[in-house]
Amino acid sequence: MKLLTLNFLTCARRACKSSADAFPLHPRDVELEIVEAEPNPSFLSNILPRLEWPALVTLCAELGLPGLPGEAPEVAELTAGEDGKGGKLAEDLHRLLLETTVKEGALVCGSCGHEYRVKEGIANFLLPSHLV
Q: What's the whole-model pTM score?
């Protein structure tokens, strides 16, 4: 599961839908893996406005990954550079969002504490019937 996906996931429990603590899900005991991918500057510039930047910064801090700026960069910052592919920030975002994956571990809701297990890169979001 790519780290980009975590920027769009929230707890599946109905009781957590109205809680702000249900997003983002917090990684616990995760094993990360880097899966090389071709740089795609146009994808980065299109996804940037859709990202929940504070959630992404929190995720990086919890995983011990290199820090991101406190404020979301402008799209122009990602496409700046001599080759039009952006600079260090674009490379870091590409590495973080498109190449870093969660291989094993758990994603934990900050509201109810429910753990969603990740096994072989696939998160299990099926809830037992008593939690639905």
A: 0.86
